[in-house]
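Quick one: structure tokens for this chain, please?
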Amino acid sequence: MPKLKTHSASKKRFKKTKSGKIKRSKAYKRHHAWAKTPKQGQQLRGGAYLAPCDEANVARLIPY
């Protein structure tokens, strides 16, 4: 069977964990920091896991 190509945009946005879950970064973090409260900035700092309904689609894009 041939090698599968990894989707270039997806490999920049998602990482696979050891347990097989897919990790992502939170949205709304980049611009207009002055308009967000400090609490909102702190909550956006950490990573998050992909929803189970989206995992199959993204797992196909990052096979390795």
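Helices lie at 8-13, 38-45, 52-61.
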